[in-house]
Amino acid sequence: MSIKSVPEGYLVDIRPQGRDGKRIRKRFKTKSEAQQFERWVIATEHNKEWVDRPADNRPLSELIDLWWRYHGQTLKSGEVARKKLQKMDARMGYPIARQVTKALFSEYRAMRLQAGRLPNTVNHEHDLLGGVFSVLIELGHYHHAHPLKDIKKIKLVERAMGYLTQAEISDVLTALSNDNLKVVKLCLATGARWSEAANLRREDVLASRVTYINTKNGKNRTVPISAELCRQLTNGVNRGPLFRDLDYLLVRDVIKSVAPDLPTGQAVHVFRHTFASHFMMSGGNILALQKILGHYNIQQTMTYAHFAPDYLSDAVRFNPLENLLSAA
C-alpha cells in the first residue's frame, strides 16, 4: 500500500511513475492529509503526456475545500462564496469531479431557473463554480479541462434603474429622523451603499471627508461632504460607530410609500442610484463619478451616462442630414 500507518501518523510511500520512477515518501498526522497528498502526487508527477490522465475521482466537495484553502479564504466574501458553493454541491447531488460536465451544469441551471431563480443569480453561481476550477487549474491542483469554460452565461435583459426625484427626496427626508435620516443624507450626498454608510465610524469622517473602508471591491475610497453635513453626522460622537440606532425596514417602507413604482428589488440601493443620476443630470463628469462610486470598471458607471444633459447630442449636430439642412 502507498499509505501506511506508522507510530507518528501516516506515511505516504509512492512511486507515481512506476517501479523504476522516483520514490516519494512523506509523513502526515492524519490519514485524510496523506490521501490528499497521494492524489496530488499522482496528478502532478504523471509525466507520460501521451497517456490519458486517470479520471479525477475526487468529490466536488474536496475541490471546493481546496479552493477555500488556497484562494477562497483570502477573499473578502470568501466564506459567503464557500457556503454558496457547498449548497450548489448539494443541489447537484454531491458529484465527483469527473461528473461535473457541461451537461450536468446545464441541467442544474435549468433546474434553478425552473425553481424561480433569477438569471443573474444563476450566472453568479456559474461564476462561482467556474472560479473553483480556474483557480485549481492555475495552481496545479486540477489537471483536466475546465468543464464550464465553453458554456455561455445566460444573456440578461437590462433592468430599469429607478431614482428619486427632488420632491421624493424631500418627502423621504421629512419622514425620517435621527440616525436613519443621517445615513440617508450620507447616501444621497456621497453615493454610498447603505452598508458602507451604516458601518461608518467616527474615525472615518475627518475634515469634511468620508472614507469608506471594507467596500464591495475591497478598496477604500474617500468622498468630500459639506461642513454642515459633517457637523450633523459627527455631533456628539467622539469615537466608534457613528450610527447605533438604524432601522433598515423602516427606511425601506418609507421609500415604498414615497415612490411605490420603483423597480422591484432596489430598496435602499435607490439612494445610490439617485446620487449618480442627479450627479450626471447636473453636469457631473463620468470619470469623477466612477471614482466616487468606487466602480472597478467604467462600464458600470456608463449606466448613468444617459442622464448627462449633452448625452449623444453630437448625433444631432454631426449627422449628414443636419449638414445638408444647414447648407440649404
TrEMBL record:
Ranges of residues in domain Tyr recombinase: 159-317
Record bears the keyword S-adenosyl-L-methionine: no
Coiled-coil spans in chain: none
UniProt GO MF annotations: DNA binding
Presence of keyword Transport: no
Top-level lineage group: Bacteria
Keywords: DNA integration, DNA recombination
Pfam families named in the record: Int_N (PF24624), Phage_integrase (PF00589)
Biological processes per GO annotation: DNA integration; DNA recombination
PANTHER family: FELS-2 PROPHAGE PROTEIN (PTHR30349:SF93), PHAGE INTEGRASE-RELATED (PTHR30349)
Protein's recorded name: Integrase
